[in-house]
Amino acid sequence: MKSKLILTAALVCVTLFVPLSLFGQSRDFEMNGTTLVKYNGNAANVTIPEGVTAIGESAFATNYGIVSVTIPSSVISIGEYAFRSCTSLASIAIPSSVTSIGDYAFSNCSSLTNITVNNQNNTYSSINGILFNKNRTVIITYPAGKRESSYTIPEGVISIGNGSFVGCNSLTSTTISSSVTSIGEWAFSDCGSLTSITIPLSVTTIGNYAFAGCTSLTNITVNNQNSVYSSAGGILFNKDRTVLIQYPAGKQESNYTIPSSVTSIGDSAFAYCISLTTVTIPSSVTSIGDRAFTYCINLRSVTIPSSITAIGVSAFEGCRSLTGVTIPSSVTSIGVSAFEGCSSLTSVIIPSSVTYIGVSAFADCSSLTSITIPSSVTVIGRSAFGNTAWLNNQPDGLIYAGKVLYTYKGTMPANTVINNIRVDTIGIASNSFNGRSSLTSIIIPLNVKVIGDGAFSECRSLTSVTIPSSVTSIGNRAFDNCRSLTSITIPASVTAIGNYAFASCESLTSITIPSSVISIGEGAFIFCNSLTSISIPSSITSIGVGTFAYCSKLTSVNIPSSVISIGEGAFGGCNSLTSITIPSSVTSIGKHAFGICSSLTSVTIPSSVTTIGNYAFVGCTSLTNITVDNQNPVYSSAGGILFNKDRTVLIQYPAGKQESNYTIPSTVTSIGGAAFGSCNSLTTITIPSSVTSIGDEAFFECSGLRSITIPSSVTSIGVSAFEGCSNLIAVTISRRTTIGRDAFPDTARITYSD
């Protein structure tokens, strides 16, 4: 089994995949080592294979057909959201081996009535089908499918966990015992039948969204002696009533005036309050939280006071009756989806104080015909005005929102050259030309300061771009997959290059990064297959995750002495890179940083490096020598082999070494992950009795290895330790040794030494 670099939406990482066929159920189980990453099957009754140690985040999420899941005793952890919204799942049994269950693991499982925990489990327990920690001080999950209408949280429970009652629609009342001190995030969210709740004096922490979406909730009462929280008129506040935390969504009043003591409206404070038509916000309020009024579907008007500086994410999303809104001149930013779906909104005037309009801020405001956008706005997010009457009424061609080039509307002719952008343009909006495969050339005029996220992404015919000296920022994925772009000059005004900004620009042969740039994002130049050299300016202190990964023709890189860290997979897959000089400023080399650099012949680790991530040099099949400065306090080398300082851990035997035999020094107690990976020249390896552990994939694809004797001192052998050793036919090992999944090839004959 080979290690291989995998590009994900967020970052570049190296993942070790176990062949799916080894788990016996076709490709139903997507594995990463012994972690079940995703279940892809459609069986009603699922048995997780023995040997799986972890059920990953969201592994079964939204699988609506699963009725039962059998968890084997090899599983020790269940990730966050692992079974979220498995709406047919009726019951689940937690074996004694499980020591970790992530938040929301069983949230929104609307048919789940029973969770049982093996009595021998040392971490968890259950009572009447409800999941607790072992000593029952934390309630973790109350199954959403239980049909009881009321529940009293037992005395002794200190904490109501995150999402513990989410979606429990049968509950009309819950009694919180006087022992409870904290109520987690989303704890009672979407309990659609819950009508009232009393907070005892013991509670000192209530997480965000704890009662969000409780559409029948009319009253929240707080014990008068509570030192942190209070209530008035059934509404939840902090003690001094400066923060309005939750207005119950089931209240029937149509009008509400927020008290003048309030300075902050909490996240989701009024969400789904469908009876409200008018809310008066006093001038004392300085912040409106994310989703504060989301889906108040009958809210008709709102005046935002001049004390507000920012309108939060989805603050008024889905307020479909909202016909007017006054945005004061104090506001500087309008958040993502702030007014999305306000389908009755007809006009909006954005004041000159605003500089930022977020993604989908006014999207689906289908009646919005008039928008006044000032010249102060420099950043407009993707689809900020999508599906509005204003946009639909615009003629085809270049569309401007204030002084920002918002988009190109209509069909773009073949071989389009754009050289007529208005000279007063100060920004290129996010995704403005995304996917315009007919665009071949564009001249961005002077005065433009920002090139937005994805502005030219997927413009596959774009060969020429002129970026003026006024630009200071190039957004995430700004030129992603511009496959015909051969060269680009980044002006000295630019200070930041976004994540994946030039990813997959496979024709780009050269690029000059000016010294003004202080930040280069993750994967900024990943898959730039024609890039042959790169000079990193001394203004850069960190080379990010996957920044130059898979630049397959890159032969040389100048890393300046300003660089402190080389990130995960930073140069992974640069298989033409023959040498690299790591300056003495570097303290950290991330995992897989130089993985699969198949032409790299030698590496010198300076004394400054104190951290080298796993598999940093895995798959470097030409690498013959790793030298560590003698003054390094953490690492050392001997015979070109990388060890920790006292040589108790063998970290990397260079895969390009030509020796056929190697005896591991008797100081070594641990052989690291992939330490001998792809060492095809080795035919004999002697493991001394000092060794107690052999890491995952330690000898993978050592194709010359025919036999191995593992001393009885070895207590554990990692996953896939000798996988891919195609000529390995004889293994001698102790019966007492714990052997990881797929440790040996099927062709190997096992002989026990005891």
Q: Give the low-confidence spans.
A: 1-26
CATH superfamily of the domain at 252-374, called what?
Ribonuclease Inhibitor
Report the CATH architecture of the domain at 252-374: Alpha-Beta Horseshoe
Arrangement of strands in the largest sheet: 37-38-40-42-44-46-48
Beta-strand segment tally: 68
- What's the multimeric state? single chain
CATH class of the domain at 252-374, please?
A: Alpha Beta
Tally of alpha and pi helices = 1
Q: Calculate Rg over CA atoms.
A: 30 Å
Helix content: under 10%
Mean pLDDT score:
94
Indicate the overall shape: flat
Tell me the span between the first and last alpha carbons: 29 Å
Question: Which structural class do the helices and strands define?
Answer: mainly beta
Query: Sheet bearing the most strands, described?
Result: 7 strands, mixed
Notable traits:
single chain, 754 residues, mainly beta, Leucine-rich repeat, LRR (right-handed beta-alpha superhelix), 7-stranded mixed sheet, 1 helix, 28% strand, flat, disordered N terminus
